[in-house]
Structures are given as C-alpha cells and as structure tokens.
C-alpha cells in the first residue's frame, strides 16, 4: 500500500494522502480504538452538547497523535519536488472543510493533521449518527495541491 498519490493532471500538480495512510494513522497510539470506544459510550443523538464535547476530545487527540513515519516521509518526498516558496492548498473532499493555504513542509504536515481531525467535527459525527453510518467506515484523504 502507498501513503500518497501523485496528482499531475493538466495544470493541476500536487499529491494526496490515501485512505490507507489514514487507517495507518488510526493505529498510532491506539487512536482508532480510543475514538470508537468513546463514541460507543455516549448517546450522541440525545445530546448535541455530548457530541460537541466528544468531537472536541477526538480532534484534540488526533492533533496530539504523531503522523506515522512512512506518511511523513512520503509527504516530504513529494514536497521536495516543488519550489520551497510554493503556496499549497490543503483540503479534503468534505463539504464543510475550508481549504488551508500553507507554505513549508511543517505547515503542510500540520494541515494534514487538521484535515484528518475535520472528519470528527461535531456536524460530521451527528450526520453519521443520524444516517446510521458506522464511524469505523469513515475515512478521509488530504489533498495537497499547488495553489496557482
């Protein structure tokens, strides 16, 4: 499996993390186990304040959990193909996700973390609950493209 896909389509240049990379990230420090256990202990539909509290706890845990080394190495390898002053747009395919404009590898890594955390917004958690979707099936990719 691979951690990133290279994107070169016409004028569009960049790369994206893969669903596999996200799944591997969830294995870091048993993050996935923590997320699914905490979600199983509450009634998210019964209380939006519970959803907000749990969502915040999950997002903080995601931002505090280091990305896997193979993912970081793959991102750095792709990043080095660009000029050091390149402005990147980092986003997901999520409807509510606002693209982040960043420069520099540290900021790209931080933005990937933020994209991963966005899967656990209060709104996303409630939506999956209301639709009867299993949280364990939710995956996300971060799209890192050259901002032209």
Describe this structure in words.
This protein has 148 residues and is of the alpha+beta class. Helix content is 48%, strand content 16%. It is built from 6 helices and 5 strands, in the order ββααααββααβ. It has helices spanning 19-27, 31-40, 48-64, 69-79, 105-118, 122-131; strands spanning 4-9, 12-17, 88-91, 100-102, 143-146. The chain has a 5-stranded antiparallel β-sheet. A hairpin with a 2-residue loop joins strand 1 and strand 2 (12-17). The radius of gyration is 16 Å and the shape is elongated.
Q: How would you describe this structure in keywords?
A:
148 residues; 16% strand; Dna Ligase, domain 1; five-stranded antiparallel sheet; 48% helix; alpha+beta; 5 strands; 6 helices
Describe the SSE topology.
Elements: E1 4-9, E2 12-17, H1 19-27, H2 31-40, H3 48-64, H4 69-79, E3 88-91, E4 100-102, H5 105-118, H6 122-131, E5 143-146
Antiparallel strand pairs: 1-2, 2-5, 3-4, 3-5
Helix pairs in contact: 2-3, 3-5
Give a short summary of the structure:
By secondary structure, the protein is of the alpha+beta class.
> What coarse outline follows from CA principal-axis ratios?
elongated
Q: Summarize the amount of helix as a percent range.
A: 40-55%
Contiguous helical run count: 6
Name of the level-1 CATH class = Alpha Beta
User: How many strands, which pairing sense, and closed or not: the largest β-sheet?
Assistant: 5 strands, antiparallel
Relevant CATH superfamily? ATP-grasp fold, A domain
**Strand order of the biggest β-sheet:** 1-2-5-3-4
What percent of residues are in strands? 15-25%
Run of helices and strands? EEHHHHEEHHE
- Nearest-integer average pLDDT: 87
What is the CATH architecture assignment?
2-Layer Sandwich
Low-confidence stretches: none
Rg (C-alpha, Å): 16 Å
Overall domain count: 1
Q: State the separation between the terminal residues, measured CA to CA.
A: 30 Å
Number of strands: 5
Structural class: alpha+beta
CATH topology: Dna Ligase, domain 1
